[in-house]
Write a structure and sequence with these properties.
There is one protein chain. The protein has one domain (2-153). Helices cover 58% and strands 5% of the residues. It has helices at residues 2-5, 18-21, 29-48, 71-74, 85-93, 97-110, 112-124, 133-153, and strands at residues 61-64, 80-83. Strands 1-2 form a two-stranded antiparallel sheet. Residues 1-13 have low confidence and may be disordered.
């Protein structure tokens, strides 16, 4: 595994989904999706640090601006925001000013044209035919390579 090959910082951990990662059978699509989400989080924490992009506190999660159920946007890097537990809970519980702050942050990051395109995709709520085990595994491999490449630079 990557962790054994590369000298990782002592406080760095790959996803903590021990139940999923230690399974000996092929992973289901939902298990692969969990692993992908954790790998995304690991990569963005390495890349940008563990600082909430809204309040500046220590962050512990990656938030999808538009729902994770909008599979077409699941791996879109512009759809991801690093949040602390407090900001994430506020956003998740109900529609409030935190949603607007995240929307503004994403809009600032990717531009209004791309934001509006993502908004339309999210509101359409259409199934995305590319979402399957092969695609999720390819994205998982992509994020693993990104982590390896980032760590090699350090």
């Amino acid at each position: 595994m990557v962790k054994e090959i590369l000298a990782l910082p002592s406080d760095f951990k790959f996803c903590q989904c021990a139940k999923v990662c230690k399974l000996k059978r092929p992973l289901s699509l939902s298990e692969l999706t969990i692993k992908l989400e954790h790998r995304q989080r690991d990569y963005y924490f390495l890349l940008l640090g563990k600082i909430c992009q809204l309040c500046g506190e220590v962050a512990n999660c990656i938030d999808h601006c538009f729902s994770r159920m909008t599979r077409e946007l699941f791996c879109d890097e512009d759809n991801l925001t690093i949040l602390c537990n407090g900001c994430h809970q506020q956003k998740t519980k109900q529609w409030n000013s935190v949603h607007l702050k995240v929307f503004d942050l994403v809009k600032q990051k990717c531009g209004e044209k791309k934001f509006n395109k993502m908004w339309k995709i999210a509101k359409a709520r259409l199934p995305w035919p590319k979402w399957n085990r092969q695609y999720v595994q390819e994205m998982l491999d992509k994020y693993t390579r990104k982590i390896e490449k980032h760590l090699e630079k350090q």
